[in-house]
TrEMBL record:
A GO cellular-component term linked to this record: cytoplasm
Superkingdom field: Bacteria
NCBIfam families (alphabetical): DKMTPPase-SF, HAD-SF-IB, PRK09552.1, salvage_mtnX
Pathway membership, UniProt: Amino-acid biosynthesis; L-methionine biosynthesis via salvage pathway; L-methionine from S-methyl-5-thio-alpha-D-ribose 1-phosphate: step 4/6
UniProt GO BP: L-methionine salvage from methylthioadenosine; L-serine biosynthetic process
The protein, known as: 2-hydroxy-3-keto-5-methylthiopentenyl-1-phosphate phosphatase
Function: Dephosphorylates 2-hydroxy-3-keto-5-methylthiopentenyl-1-phosphate (HK-MTPenyl-1-P) yielding 1,2-dihydroxy-3-keto-5-methylthiopentene (DHK-MTPene).
InterPro entries attached to this UniProt entry: HAD-like_SerB, HAD-like_sf, HAD-SF_hydro_IB_MtnX, HAD_hydro_PyrdxlP_Pase-like, HAD_sf
Coiled-coil residue windows: none
Amino acid sequence: MKVNPIIFCDFDGTITESDNIILIMEKFASVEANEIKNAILNEDLSIQEGVKQLFSLLPSSLKDEIISYVLENAKIRDGFNEFISFTQKHEIPLYIVSGGIDFFLHPVLEPYGPFENIFCNHADFSGEKINIVYPYSCDDICSSQGCGCCKPSIIRSFSDKDMETIVIGDSITDLQAAKLAHHVFARDFLIKKCEQYDIPYQSFHNFYDIINKLEEMIEVKI
């Protein structure tokens, strides 16, 4: 029996060439942001708590300036449009799951949509500082319990035993999802983590690389 692929794709550093949270912090935050970032990457601080701490460094009044900055500097990775078309042509469910924040993620993706399935964190600007809210928190069996936007929980909610789970990502926010996936497309920091945890992966530079591999997988009926 043919098993159906289902794709869970990261946003920051995957769909976009750079991690937009890091770009934002380098532009608008203090040197303290770098210490928090390193603690997240070293797994000394949970993603949920770390991202919350990062954005608490920024005044809510910067909202429009941050959006403009991200729109000016976020570059979509080559082949993304073709990747979307490929998934639609082959009727492969595509879920964009991101540790990023809605207020800049949605404006960046808008020209490439509409997308039915986007999961990310929410920014609250009602206070003096930006507060991050997590609408997609960890389920009871998540081993991390600090993911923020919990990708493993989302995978468990939308895939089943008759599906081949494909995870595409680049960083620490994709690690727990990669542990669950049947197939992992990795780049940058996620490659290091896959090697550290002995997780099989395919490296990629752009979405054309992913399309080529998916064509092979479909041809042999994964």
